[in-house]
C-alpha cells in the first residue's frame, strides 16, 4: 500500500492501538499528525516516525471540543498542505455497573469517544469537501458497542453510536467521495490485560517473547496492536475506494465483517397487536429464538487452561 502524498490525523496516537495506526500509516508513506494528551508519548511517536524517514507533527490536546478538532485539521493543512485521512481513536474508560456509574463517569467517556469522533470527523469532512478530492474517515469502535459489555454502559453506548455515525456519514459523504468505516479492533493492550482469562497469556508473551497461541489469535481474534494496523492502512488507501458504511472487525489472525442490525423474525396480526396477543404468541412466534447479548466468554483449550 502506497500512501505517499496523503496526510492523516490519528487521535489518541501516543500509545497502544493509536500508535500502531500512526506508525503503520507513516510506514506506508503518509504524513501523520499525532494527537495525544500525553506530550511525551506524542513526542516519542513523532520521533519514531521521523527516525524511520517519515513525516509527523504532534498536537497535544484532549479531543471532544470543536476547537481541538479544528486545530488537528488546521495543523495537517498548515504542515503538510491537506488532509486525506482522519482516524478517530482517542478514548478513555470509566467502567462501573449502572447503579454505581456517576454522571461524570458517563459524560467523560461520551465526551471523548462519541463527541470526539463527531467533532474530529466533522472538521475533517468540511476540509475534505473543500479540497474536492475525496477522503477517508476511519472511526474506531469496539466489540462492546456491537454486543454490550458488563460494566461499560458509557463505553458500549459510545462505541455503538460510532458505528451508527459511520453508516449515516457514509450516505451523506458519498457524493464527495469520502468513505466512512468503523473498525472493531481486538488487541492486547493495557485494557485487555484487565480481562482475567487473557491476562496470563499476554503477560507471558511480553515476558518471554512467545507468540500468542493459535486459539487466542484465531478463535478469539486477539493479537498484537500491529495485527490491527493493516486494516487502517487498507481503509486509508485507494484500494478501499469502494468500501464504505461498514463495521469491520480485526484482531490476531481474524478479519470479519459485522452485520448491520436487521429484523430477525416478523409476525402479523390482523388489526394490530394487543399485549394479550403478544404474550400468547411470543414464545412460539418472534420470540422463539431470542438474540444473545454481551461479549461471549473466551473458550480456553484444556491444555492452556492451567493457571488461567
From TrEMBL:
It comes from the Bacteria. GO terms for molecular function: oxidoreductase activity. Keywords: Oxidoreductase. Residues 6-189 form the Ketoreductase domain. Pfam families: adh_short_C2. Gene3D superfamilies: NAD(P)-binding Rossmann-like Domain. Transmembrane segments: none annotated. Belongs to the short-chain dehydrogenases/reductases (SDR) family. This is 3-oxoacyl-[acyl-carrier protein] reductase.
Amino acid at each position: 500500500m502506497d500512501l505517499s502524498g496523503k496526510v492523516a490525523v490519528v487521535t489518541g496516537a501516543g500509545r497502544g492501538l493509536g500508535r500502531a495506526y500512526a506508525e503503520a500509516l507513516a510506514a506506508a508513506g503518509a504524513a501523520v499528525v499525532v494527537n495525544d494528551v500525553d506530550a511525551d508519548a506524542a513526542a516519542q511517536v513523532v520521533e519514531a516516525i521521523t527516525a524511520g524517514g517519515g513525516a509527523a507533527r504532534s498536537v497535544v490536546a484532549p479531543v471532544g471540543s470543536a476547537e481541538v478538532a479544528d486545530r488537528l485539521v488546521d495543523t495537517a493543512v498548515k504542515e503538510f498542505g491537506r488532509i486525506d485521512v482522519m482516524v478517530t481513536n482517542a478514548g478513555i474508560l470509566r467502567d462501573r455497573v449502572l447503579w454505581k456509574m456517576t454522571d461524570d463517569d458517563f459524560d467523560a467517556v461520551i465526551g471523548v469517544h462519541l463527541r470526539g469522533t463527531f467533532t474530529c470527523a466533522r472538521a475533517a469532512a468540511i476540509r475534505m469537501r473543500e479540497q474536492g478530492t475525496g477522503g477517508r474517515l476511519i472511526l474506531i469502535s469496539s466489540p462492546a458497542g456491537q454486543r454490550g459489555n458488563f460494566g461499560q454502559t458509557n463505553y458500549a453506548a459510545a462505541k455503538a453510536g460510532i458505528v451508527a455515525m459511520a453508516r449515516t456519514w457514509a450516505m451523506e459523504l458519498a457524493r464527495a467521495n469520502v468513505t466512512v468505516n468503523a473498525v472493531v479492533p481486538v488487541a492486547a493492550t493495557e485494557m485487555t490485560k484487565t480481562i482475567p482469562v487473557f491476562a496470563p497469556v499476554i503477560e507471558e508473551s511480553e515476558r518471554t517473547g512467545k507468540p500468542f497461541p493459535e486459539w487466542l489469535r484465531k478463535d478469539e481474534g486477539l493479537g498484537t496492536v500491529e495485527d490491527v494496523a493493516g486494516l487502517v492502512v487498507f481503509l486509508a488507501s485507494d484500494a478501499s475506494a469502494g468500501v464504505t458504511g461498514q463495521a469491520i472487525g480485526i484482531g490476531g489472525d481474524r478479519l470479519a465483517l459485522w452485520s448491520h442490525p436487521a429484523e430477525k423474525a416478523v409476525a402479523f396480526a390482523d388489526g394490530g397487536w394487543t399485549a394479550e396477543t403478544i404474550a400468547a404468541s411470543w414464545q412460539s412466534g418472534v420470540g422463539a429464538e431470542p438474540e444473545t447479548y454481551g461479549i461471549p466468554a473466551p473458550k480456553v483449550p484444556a491444555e492452556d487452561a492451567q493457571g488461567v
